[in-house]
Amino acid sequence: MTLNAPRPAQSASPAPLRRSLGVVDGVAIAASSTAATTSIAIGMGTIAATVGLQAPALLLLAFLPVLGIATAYARLNRSEPNCGNGYVWVGKSLGPWPGFLTGWVTLVGSIIFLAYTSAVTGSVVLIFANKAGLDSLAGIALDPTSTAVSTVVGLVTLTAVTAMAVTGVRSATRLQFGLLVFEYAVLLGFCTWALVTGEQQFSLSWFNPFEMSSGTAFAQGLVLAVFFFWGWDAAFSVTEETRSPGDSARGGFIALFAMLGLFLFASVAFQREMSLPELIKNGPQALPYLGAKLAAEPWASLPLLALMFSAVASVQAAVIPTARGLLAMGRDRTLGPVWTRVHPKYGTPAAGTVIVMSIAAGIALLAVAIPKLSDMLLAAVNAIGLVVALYYGLTALACAVRFRAARRDGLREALLAVGVPAASGLVLLGLGAYLGYSYLTMSDHFELSPDNGWFMFSLPATIVVSGLVMAAVAKYARRSPYFATGRGTDADALALPMDRTAL
């Protein structure tokens, strides 16, 4: 009896990705995707506006569930190394619907991040160009406050880093590692300067989360702090391109602990040098402002240069895992076969990488033409913490379910395999639910504004609903093998049983 119709697109397995990466490459991808310099430069003012001087406390607290999520990723990756990571793992452990949703929200969130960050990157490049004395090019004013010019420059940067990601992920990681060394040298140098010379009195209360004004502020601040760490899991997206699957986990953990150290050090240094009103006022320009406050030119421009490098590296680091997540979904035919095309020369998912770049570029250009879309992108980036909490939480629960038998293997194994992942996942899911409720209750009407709670909630909700719609399309229209057994699985895993059925 034939259980499934013939699947011509699956007759030959997709070409394998080229294994060329090691631990250093994993660290470079994870650290670049986390973009500590950008998070510190742009996020410190935002988190200060939410929780006051308790940023160090929130960053330390946020690290705990994120570390629990990281242990879940490492264990799952050791059991089943797959570039689709959460999409595959959640699908097998919790079922194909939550599995597909995990993959979908991760991809959409990354593409939104790319569309928004490209324009931000262009603006930083233009600011530095102006500082270098280049104010116009071919009669066009290089104005960093111009959304159109910033977007175009950002898209040129996006195209360049995409080309590098296509022609070889190892060359891309080597560039990222070089940029990281410069960024961190500048960041540590200026933060040490601020820590030593700052006039604001250091206080242990900065590490006391109970000093926060309300539960809502705590939840919002904690989600923001989790968002600071977002990106370390990019190391697992190239697990099929690493020489050893364990290198992905080692790279992710090294990057994660390095980020914790940088975030805590920078948050204390910023608060030593700047008062709370000063930090909030300079918000997105906090790092360049710190450079200008501490040093004269040309040294004062070094933090801006580090920020530019960080923005470029984070854009490239976002392109790489997104294309590989789509490759895993294409292998299951939950999405189209175009995503499975691996370049015969470069051994990368070239077609998918270019399409991801094109979609992000299209959204960024539409945002220039439609001002309200620009507001939507800003709100989406602000609300993306809810999406991150969702897919991190589901992946951690998938780990607890998959390895639930380990609870009989002693207390230590039960805690590491089940208890810690389950607790971390529930914390993030509960945090996301609380913040979603806060968004719904903070406004009494709907308005297209990044400050409107209903609007803020509607964006991640739309991403989730669209994911459920696309899952239905994959199941009923594409008849994807991911849904065939009732449990999500990678298409390669189904190849042998389906061949037996055909026989």
From TrEMBL:
Keywords: Membrane, Transmembrane, Transmembrane helix
Main location: membrane
GO biological process: transmembrane transport
tRNA processing is among the record's keywords: no
Domain Amino acid permease/ SLC12A as annotated: residue spans: 34-434
Compartments, as annotated in UniProt: Membrane
InterPro entries named in the record: AA-permease/SLC12A_dom, APC_superfamily
Membrane topology: Multi-pass membrane protein
Protein name: Putrescine importer PuuP
Organism: Streptomyces jeddahensis
